[in-house]
Amino acid sequence: MKIIHGRAAVSSTERRSATFTGEVWADPILAATDGVTINNVFFAPQARTHWHTHEGGQVLMVIYGEGKIRAEAGDAQRIRPGDTVWIQPGERHWHGAGETTCMAHVAISLGGPEWLEPVTDEEYRGSGADGTIRD
Ligand code: MN
User: How far apart, in whole angstroms, are the C-alpha atoms of residue 58 and residue 107?
Assistant: First the structure.
């Protein structure tokens, strides 16, 4: 058992850039332990991940603001505080802030990520084949 009391005092909030578009900061909560990694992630408006997958899946719990998430197979959907998302192992997806709103989520990642190409502005804005964003 390991109890984590708030953020780890020894770690600094990390600016994430190589696999994200826009301004994204992450606070490591649990460094990779038994295949589980937990981060609090803060996205500025329009910031988002690249397309990616998670080896063992991922749980996202939105804690602030309003954002978007999309699996390759579907349209983008809005996510808000209180929403919990399960992303299946190997499911290609991205997540990020809204166009004019910040978004913060807790990310519980199982196994390592595989990072793919950036989400284009067109994909980010429109997102579905028909540009739909579902509430
Ligand atoms: Mn993800």
Answer: 7
Q: What is the CA(13)–ligand 1 centre distance, in A?
A: 19
Give the dihedral sign, CA 116/133/22/111: negative
Q: Per-residue pLDDT for 131 more than 80?
A: no
Cα(50)–Cα(14) distance, integer angstroms: 17
**Three-state SS string across 38-101, please?**
EEEEEECCCCEECCEEECCCEEEEEEEECEEEEECCCCEEEECCCCEEEECCCCCEEEEECCCC
**CA 60–ligand 1 middle distance (angstroms):** 8
Cα(75) to ligand 1 centroid in Å equals 16
Find the 93 Cα to ligand 1 centroid distance in Å. 6
pLDDT confidence band for 86 (50 / 70 / 90): very high
What is the pLDDT averaged over residues 21-36? 93
Q: Quote the ligand 1 centre to 2 CA distance (angstroms).
A: 24
The structural domains of the chain, ordered by start, are 24-125 (2.60.120.10)
Q: What is the pLDDT of residue 85?
A: 98
